[in-house]
# Entry
Amino acid sequence: MTTQTQLTASASGNFGESLTMAQKESLRCAVAKIVAFGALVGISAEQMIQMLQSGLTVGELLQYLASRSGEVA
# Structure
């Protein structure tokens, strides 16, 4: 399983089977953007997966990444 697939699965919970193809593509695109933003602020996809698996919500993850973006010069 690729890192992005793992992050998508973490973000979507158990809903992967009930999503339409368009929803899956939207989710894939959103995850790709989050992964790219994380890389910009120095957080790897693997680290984000660990954060989500430890109980952080996607919203909290986004807030954390945004707070880190102020630290990047």
